[in-house]
Structures are given as structure tokens and as C-alpha cells.
Amino acid sequence: MSKHVAISSQEAADRLAIRELVETYAHCADRRDAKGQMSLFTEDAHFVVHMNAKDLRPSMELHGREALEPVFADLNKYDATTHFVGQHTIVTLTDDHALGEAYCLAHHVSIEDGKRKLMIASLRYLDSFVKPDGVWLFAERLLYVDWLEERAIS
Q: How far apart are CA 151 and CA 140, in angstroms?
């Protein structure tokens, strides 16, 4: 168990701002706001997807904020999504850089042949954050899919 120590008000504010960044990403995904999601990244962002967390080779690797648009817009194929952000850990934090890990259960509802189907994905994000001009952004986001479940829903 880690020992808790007092932190400065600036560190507390930075930790909260980073948590809000992670939560805003999920909110934009669920509201189909691809432009909003993109705005959370640096211009030269790096985004890597591992559809199988055990496979070292990425399924997709994107460079630059503009390259993210089709990936985020792809959520439009779902009737509804809900991303529950679980624990979020800041591993390192300086004045303008941070590393963190976030867990998420992503629920995707689709309709196929008139029937509703639910896909739940257990996601882990390894994140690198930067704070240019006083605002925290994603510099790099590594997405790992730990498991998937699919089932019919009413």
C-alpha cells in the first residue's frame, strides 16, 4: 500500500485536469463529437491501438491529430455507446509532462438484421500527457483491448 503525502494545490489541480481530460475523451466518444475528441490531442499526437493486448504488434498506428478523425467518426456505426472510465493512475507528473494509465469498460450497441447486439470491451490506455500553454493534452495514447464480450440484448 502506498503512503499518501500532502501535495501542492498545483499538483492537485494538474491531477484533476488530467482526469477531466480522460473523462472528456469518453464523453466526446459517446456524443459522437470527433472534433471534440481530436481537440484533446497535440497536433503531432501518436495514437496506437492493440485490439489484442497480448500481441506486441499494433492493429493500428496513427500520427497527427488530423489522422484521428476517421477513427473517432467510426463510432457513428453504433446505435449507442457508453464508456465507463474506471481507475485512473498518474504514474509520473512534472510541471508539463505526465504519464498515466486508465481503465475503461466500453459498451457498444449495434443493430443487425433488426436485432440489438451489445459488445463490451475492457480497455486500458497508457497515456503520455503534455501541458503546452497551460492546458493538458494527450501527446500519446496507447489503447489495449484486454477482452471483448458480445451478446444479444433486448
A: 32
